[in-house]
Design a protein that fits this description.
The complex is a heterodimer of chains A (326) and B (264). With 326 residues, chain A is an alpha/beta fold. Chain A has helices at 48-55, 77-81, 99-109, 114-127, 143-155, 173-188, 201-207, 225-231, 247-250, 277-285, 300-308, 315-325, and strands at 7-16, 19-29, 37-41, 63-68, 71-72, 84-87, 161-165, 193-197, 210-215, 218-223, 234-241, 257-262, 265-270, 289-296. Chain B has one domain (2-256). Chain B is globular, with a radius of gyration of 21 Å. Classes of the chains: A alpha/beta (326), B mainly alpha (264).
Chain lengths: 326, 264
């Protein structure tokens, strides 16, 4: 039985007016029912919001197909929307309603019966930290509270997929931490699939299992962050003083390989299972004094900059190429 | 019925709306008294015979009733209408609605239902009650002879409520501030009436009246109730003009009810 992708795009093209915003993008993101988060990254104008709005049925595809939770975005949008929650980037609320009334109305519009909608509204408001202010009108809320209310309305009906557009926008550090924790809880404890659109790489790195990078309406990179974390392939930037001429030949003792950059600086690739402590031991046996040791994996930022064309290789790729070349 | 339920609850929390609605029941009560008196002529002994012939429950009676209630409905719509769409637009709530199983048309229909429902309470519903009172007092033979009055009254009122509701929704969709939106709702009718009169006077014609929705609706009422119509375009021309006006309002509202604005 084939797994249903959370988002499936087949040569999707979207035009707004005369401008083509998305240029024939194709991909499969996530697996329905697995409780994973997919990050959508890209610079301003890349087409992230257009993609999200197309998935929600707000824009029509000029060519190609888009499916969400296995349902066609054009033909089955009504059914799809009952299983999706959406948190827009901009302020979105009904100012004259209290948070409870607002959430209750939204839950009923998503198909919940009135009594269940009321119970869920109270429950979700407490969950996002707005329990004490749930009877206040939304227009009296602070910015951070409105963001939480927006998240609450997106999850009140227990959707299978939640789409979050810049969820941490404008939040102070504490509120940002709380928001990211809520997103993590949504996928881990409640099994919701999450699609996060953000330009904040560390947010994506923190909560997402998969990342797609868009540029100029096309997908330039698609990586599985979970697998990258599990692969444990990392590299070390080492700087030593002393006679390091034999270091290159000694590295295979610990199963590593490296290349000298001169002046006591080395790039060493560590395979899975080899800890950085082994480097310390090896340096001691070679009578080398370690001046600097940096243990790194390629960060999402480096992957992103390479995808944007600002880097030709990530540091990890450079290390691997240098070691392989020599 | 989710949106209408929440909207009605919100509207009837406003004291001014309740006050206007109560005031709008005064005229139906007076008409009910009138119906009672005309069916108990022994109470009117001693009055002039010509006057007694005049005070009959007929098409003219219901036309006057409708005229006054329609006026009350205009003010209630001006008060309640601005709260229909403007709050959703000013706080960008439309994406939240349309990301749910709710189409733009069902949203618009829900909003229309809210205001037509509110105005029905002070228009055709008391009108039907008056009709029922008359039938009860005058007997079934009166109903058999005059059943078209009931149908004409309901259709006539619904036509007027549709116009009022669409004007209220359009002003709510384009004007953020409630008081201004309410004033715009009222002004539309006065301005169009003034323009139509000006055209008639300047060009010495009578077709200018088709631009006045209040006049054209009244013209249609006269046909439905079998009453002598005022001078000017006929019922057919009035219906065509009203249809064009409704379509124009639908297009105007449709352009605003979008989940996202697209800059082309």
């Amino acid at each position: 039985m084939s797994e249903t992708a959370v988002v499936e795009l087949e040569d999707l093209r979207v035009k707004l007016g005369r401008r083509e915003i998305l240029h024939g993008i194709s991909c499969r993101l996530g697996v329905s029912g697995t409780g994973k988060a997919v990050g959508l990254l890209g610079p301003n104008g890349a087409g992230k919001s257009t993609l999200i709005l197309t998935l929600l049925g707000f824009h029509r595809a000029s060519a190609g197909r888009a499916r969400i939770l296995g349902m066609d975005c054009r033909r089955n949008m009504g059914e799809a929307r009952s299983r999706i929650g959406y948190m827009p980037e901009n302020d979105s609320f009904v100012g004259e309603m209290t948070a409870v009334s607002f959430l209750r109305q939204m839950a009923e519009l998503s198909g919940l019966p009135p009594k269940a909608a009321l119970e869920k509204a109270h429950e979700v408001l407490f969950h996002v930290g707005l329990g004490e202010s749930r009877y206040r009108e939304l227009r009296t809320y602070s910015y951070g509270m409105k963001q939480m209310a927006k998240l609450a309305q997106a999850i009140v009906h227990g959707p299978e997929l939640v789409i979050l557009d810049e969820p941490t926008n404008g939040l102070d550090p504490a509120a940002r931490r709380r928001m990211l924790k809520l997103v993590t809880d949504m996928k881990e404890e409640q099994g919701m699939n999450v699609l996060v659109c953000s330009h904040l790489l560390r947010d994506i790195e923190q909560v997402c299992d998969e990342a797609v990078i868009l540029k100029d309406g096309a997908i330039v990179h698609h990586c599985n962050l979970e697998e990258e974390r599990r692969s444990n392939k990392s590299f070390v930037e080492l700087e030593v003083t002393g006679d390091d001429r034999n270091l290159r030949m000694a590295l295979p003792e610990i199963g590593a390989d490296g290349v000298s950059e001169g002046g006591g600086r080395w790039r060493i690739v560590l395979p899975a299972g080899v800890e950085v402590e082994a480097i310390w031991g090896l340096a001691a046996r070679q009578d080398l004094l370690v001046r600097k040791l940096t243990h790194r994996r390629d960060t999402l930022e480096e992957i992103f900059l390479k995808a944007m064309g600002h880097l030709s290789h990530t540091p990890g790729e450079s290390a691997t190429l240098e070691v392989g070349g020599s | 019925m989710v949106l209408p339920r929440y909207a009605w609850r919100g509207l009837y929390e406003q004291r001014l709306v309740i006050l206007l609605t109560m005031v709008a029941f005064v005229w139906p009560l007076l008409c009910a008294g009138f119906i009672y008196l005309t069916n108990h002529v022994e109470l009117l002994q001693g009055l002039d015979k010509e006057f007694l012939d005049f005070i009959q429950v007929n098409g003219q009676f219901f036309r006057v009733f409708m005229y006054v209630q329609a006026g009350c409905a205009v003010f209630i719509a001006a008060l309640a209408g601005p709260g229909l769409i403007a709050p959703d637009l000013s706080n960008n709530a439309l994406p939240l609605y349309f990301s749910r199983p709710l189409t733009r048309w069902s949203y618009a229909l829900a909003r229309l239902t809210v205001i037509i429902g509110m105005l029905s309470v002070v228009t055709w519903i008391p009108g039907l009650l008056l009709l029922a009172l008359q039938v009860g007092l005058a007997g079934g033979w009166w109903f058999l002879a005059n059943w078209t009055l009931g149908a004409g009254m309901v259709v006539g009122f619904l036509l007027w409520l549709l116009i009022l509701s669409l004007v209220a929704m359009a002003s709510s969709a384009y004007v953020k501030w409630r008081i201004v939106a309410g004033a715009v709702s009222l002004a539309v009718f006065f301005i169009l009436s003034g323009v139509s009169e000006m055209i008639d006077q300047v060009f010495r014609v009578s077709w200018g009246h088709v631009l006045d929705p209040a006049w054209t609706v009244n013209r249609v009422w006269c046909t439905l109730l079998g009453v002598d119509p005022p001078e000017g375009p006929g019922a057919g021309a009035s219906i065509v003009a009203l249809t064009a006006f409704v379509l124009l309002l639908v297009v105007v509202i449709e352009r605003k009810l979008r989940p996202v604005e697209v800059v082309r």
